[in-house]
Task: inverse folding
């Protein structure tokens, strides 16, 4: 599926893809920007740390793109389960809702990793890509928040069992990272302010 075709489907009247897939795409875009910032910097100042960050960002981008497709499939499975014969419907809906909760949880975790990776490279990247990194952090934060919200909504349809408790614990841990996100935003603001009106990145 091309990006254009995905956006066409997202804009259509069909129920899927929806917000979960859009959040995963935002996270993948954030990871791509992190990789770009590292690659631009490494042209002039290559290092093992930057090379490792590029690999990590690329892996996160691929993971989030896969989750984008998985979210579409998971939501389609929910819709299909609700059309099942009554004698099978409850078990099928339960299984589908568990998957529809797991996918946004995985998306939120991956987005949190993009944020953590961004924090590790902030001081290393060239001034000319600080703005790009800021966009990456903004998108990753939005992906995390949106995915966590989707998971919380879907959890409401599940019984309070071990799966639900683990999912809620994961959501609480992700929410606890809000302080680190604010600190990262402050570091970005300071770095961008120090950059002033720096010219565009070199070719």
Result:
């Amino acid at each position: 599926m091309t990006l254009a075709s995905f956006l066409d489907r997202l804009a259509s009247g069909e129920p899927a893809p929806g917000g979960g897939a859009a959040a995963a795409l935002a996270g993948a875009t954030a990871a791509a920007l992190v990789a770009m910032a590292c690659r631009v910097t490494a042209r002039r100042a290559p290092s093992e740390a930057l090379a490792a960050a590029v690999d990590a960002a690329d892996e996160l981008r691929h993971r989030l793109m896969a989750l984008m497709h998985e979210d579409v499939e998971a939501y389609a499975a929910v819709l299909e389960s609700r059309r099942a014969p009554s004698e099978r419907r409850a078990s099928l809906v339960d299984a589908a809702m568990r998957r529809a909760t797991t996918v946004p949880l995985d998306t939120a975790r991956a987005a949190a990793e993009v944020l953590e990776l961004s924090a590790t490279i902030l001081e290393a990247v060239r001034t000319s890509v600080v703005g790009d990194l800021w966009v990456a952090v903004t998108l990753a934060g939005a992906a995390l928040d949106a995915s966590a919200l989707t998971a919380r909504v879907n959890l409401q349809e599940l019984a309070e069992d071990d799966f639900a408790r683990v999912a809620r614990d994961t959501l609480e841990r992700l929410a606890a990272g809000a302080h680190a996100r604010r600190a990262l935003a402050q570091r970005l603001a300071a770095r961008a302010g120090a950059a002033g009106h720096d010219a565009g990145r070199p070719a």
About this structure: The chain has one domain: 19-194. Residues 197-203 have pLDDT under 50 and may be disordered. Residues 19-194 form a domain with the Four Helix Bundle (Hemerythrin (Met), subunit A) fold (CATH 1.20.120.680). The CA atoms of residues 120 and 198 lie 22 Å apart.
